[in-house]
Amino acid sequence: IILATAPKLTSLLSAIGSSLILFKVVCSPKNRSQTMHRIMACISLVDILTSSAMFLGSIMIPRGTPSWFGDGTQPIFWAVGTKRTCDMAGYLGQLQVGGVLFNASLATYYLLTVYYGWNDVKLKKVEWLFYVIPFG
């Protein structure tokens, strides 16, 4: 039961935090115009999607799937999904890789601006890579 319920609180808090970041970026023309904030918006969007999958967790597992704990005869707690919802959860879970790659994009942005001193003009030429690589 704990394995089915514990991720719900943490994923809900993560989705709320990411929603606040996304809202702050989207609602501010100044923030939308800055590369760093656009990357943060993408990180937040991916986190909202993956946190939603974590929140739904065992709900998306097909009904009647046996638990691997205990003697293996008990069904997984709150497993009420179908094969399709299970596939969808797996797809959303794979988006976590996008979050990691967007973090790498943000780190690269900081490397280019802080260490190498790139300005916005130089950054605009390579900014598309910050989005293509995580979604590619």
Structure write-up:
This protein is an all-alpha fold and 136 residues long. It has six helices and no strands. 22% of the residues are buried. The model has no long low-confidence stretch (mean pLDDT 92).
Q: Distance N terminus to C terminus?
A: 37 Å
| SSE ordering | HHHHHH
Count the E strands.
0
Flag low-confidence runs.
none
Number of helices: 6
Secondary-structure-based class equals: mainly alpha
- Helical proportion? over 70%
This entry's quaternary arrangement is: single chain
Mass-distribution shape: elongated
Q: Tell me the β content.
A: under 5%
Radius of gyration: 19 Å
User: Main β-sheet, in a few words?
Assistant: none
Give the rounded overall mean pLDDT.
92
